[in-house]
Description:
This protein has 3 helices and 15 strands. The chain has 192 residues and is an alpha+beta fold. The protein has one domain (2-188): Sandwich (Jelly Rolls). The strands form 4 sheets. It has a 7-stranded antiparallel beta sheet. The longest helix has 14 residues, at 21-34. The relative contact order is 0.24.
Amino acid sequence: MSLITLHNGPELRFDPSFIPFSEAESLYEILLREIPWKQEQIRMFGNWLNMPRLTAWMGDPDAVYEYSGLVNTPLAWHPQVLLLKNRLEFALGSAFNSVLLNYYRDGNDSMGWHADNEPALGEAPVIASISLGASRKIRFRPAGGGKSLGLDLPAGSLLVMEGRTQTDWQHALPKTKHALGRINLTFRKIIG
Ligand SMILES: O=C(O)CCC(=O)C(=O)O
Ligand SMILES: [Mn+2]
């Protein structure tokens, strides 16, 4: 696991091959098939719009997550996802009780600029993000505005966001022309 230290940048740790490639491939297929992916809607300027990706919220029964006015009760742990959680906890020495799963069906699916700074995540949360399927680029920019930087997230990679990453930075997963399907899992600890 390499620590990416950017001068005055977001605090990230990155392992390009946390999950071996063939395992990452089969895990992608399993999760694609077995997760009950949902098309959520968000309210924007008075209109309801489809989120540009499919999602699932999973975790311990008490890890209820509220965002955009939606109360999300977690799905029970999928056995493969629970194994991933255990591996992450062992590798990082941090505990997680929930995970947001995102399925980007193609390069048209995306995630806009945001920070995972909900009060329920506490100060300086450790968020562990695992990528499967097509490689996509995540971008970071200072919350106060400024130049963004990009990082490729190949299948099997692990990106850990921590420290002041959610307070001083925003991140996004922009659209791209070429990508096929991708699944991303961001493990979190909701502290209620
Ligand atoms: O898909 C990604 O790599 C980013 C996901 C993300 O930022 C989130 O779930 O909050
Ligand atoms: Mn995020």
